[in-house]
Write a structure and sequence with these properties.
Order of helices and strands: HHEHEEEHEHEEHEHEHEHHHHH
Radius of gyration: 32 Å
Structural class: alpha+beta
Number of strands: 10
Largest sheet: 6 strands, mixed, barrel
Number of helices: 13
Strand content: 15-25%
Helix content: 55-70%
């Protein structure tokens, strides 16, 4: 068998150009499958991290309708916090509004938060501090900026101590910047930078006072067991209806379930694109068949000589199958390495974590090798069935 492998590799080396082109066609197909499957996995991971960083990991409590009389105030927040299955809860208010700084104007999202919101919204402090409990109790005019806001106005990140004016209600209100953070939503900010340059965080009490809102827009809830989020949500609704005396006044959004649905959708899209890319492996297999048939025609006389001196049909068959297997194996391994390389470089370039699943890589290699071997069977059988007399008669 070792001798058969050596002879097969030697024969591939005799037609280097043709062999290299065939290997490249297989490598392109495998690399495409690896890159597409990795992009899908990275996309799922990135979206999940972004949703978590924006406080969208768990469940959200809101009014059944904007005009509903059901309260969503501090009392409702405390009611939610003491429910079984609730790990943490925080009231949130949001306003899409204008940001004024240095005679410049930009659009942004203003969040009215409590200190507990740091458990829901990823806020990594770069300079200064975050909103604390004193700011909420006193209703201070302080704010924390996302670094993209600071970059937009000052072309630098450290703008602690500067003043920014926010349009809340009908007037522009001045706030002192006390902190700069690298907050969640960097992916969405990158995609929507023309519309949402960044986020501004102010005390929730200040937000409610300036916007004349007595209630929170929503209460973000982190559950202890994500699989039991629906049951926890039902308990919260019952507790809120009992404390307020209002029926059908609240609604629950199971964002964990929505996130799973989004992940399933991304997985389906990834699989569909991978199957499309896998078609190129079939084309590469047909290329192997063509190359091997040409090789059989070129080596007909050689096959006749081998058979006339005692070579068995099984040996001839194995030689050609080994050549097809070698071409497909070399091409698939090279394609897998190229695919992993490009995915890694791309992730490093965009400062993202590389999420490369090994099972699609091994599956694409196995499929490529199998396809190459299957498409190599026909040319190998043609070579093995040649009669020595007919083969030697060929010029």
């Amino acid at each position: 068998m070792i001798e058969i492998i050596r002879r097969s590799l030697r024969m591939l080396g005799r037609k280097k150009g043709r062999t290299i082109l065939t290997v490249i066609s297989i490598a392109i197909g495998v690399a495409s499958v690896v890159i597409i499957s990795s992009i899908g996995e990275i996309g799922k991971s990135s979206v999940e991290q972004e949703l978590q960083s924006l406080g969208l990991d768990g469940i959200s409590v809101g009014k059944s309708s904007p005009a509903a009389a059901s309260p969503l105030n501090d009392l409702a927040l405390e009611t939610v916090r003491v429910q079984p299955g609730v790990q943490a809860a925080a009231g949130l208010n949001t306003e899409y509004t204008e940001l004024h700084m240095r005679s410049l104007v930009a659009n942004g999202v203003v969040w009215g938060i409590e200190p507990a919101a740091a458990q829901f919204i990823s806020m990594e402090t770069i300079y200064g501090r975050l909103i604390n409990q004193y700011d909420v109790r006193a209703g201070t005019r302080v704010c924390v900026l996302d670094q993209t806001v600071a970059q937009s106005f000052y072309k630098r990140t450290n703008v602690v101590g500067k003043t920014i004016r926010l349009k809340l209600g009908e007037a522009l209100e001045s706030f002192t910047v006390v902190g700069i953070v690298r907050s969640g939503g960097s992916l969405f900010q990158g995609l929507l930078s023309s519309y949402v340059p960044g986020f501004v965080y102010i005390p929730s009490s200040t937000m409610q006072q300036l916007t004349m809102k007595a209630d929170f827009d929503q209460i973000a809830v982190k559950v202890t067991e994500p699989k039991q989020a629906e049951e926890t949500g039902d308990r919260i609704i019952q507790a809120l209806e009992s404390s307020s005396g209002i029926r059908n006044g609240y609604r629950i959004q199971n964002i964990t379930q929505q996130k799973e649905s989004l992940n399933r959708l991304l997985e389906i899209v990834t699989q569909a694109l991978s199957l499309i890319a896998g078609v190129s492996l079939i084309v590469a297999g047909l290329g192997i068949m063509t190359v091997m048939l040409v090789s059989v025609r070129e080596r007909t006389r050689e096959i006749g000589i081998k058979k006339s001196i005692g070579a068995r049909s099984r040996v001839i068959l194995l030689e050609f199958l080994t050549e097809a297997l070698a071409i497909s194996l070399i091409g698939s391994l090279a394609g897998a390495l190229v695919g992993v390389f490009f995915v890694t470089v791309g992730c490093l370039s965009f400062q993202m974590e590389a999420a490369i699943r090994l099972d699609p890589v091994f599956q694409s290699i196995a499929f490529s090798v199998l396809a190459g071997t299957v498409f190599g069977v026909y040319p190998a059988c043609v070579a093995a069935k040649l009669r020595p007399v007919d083969a030697l008669r060929t010029l």
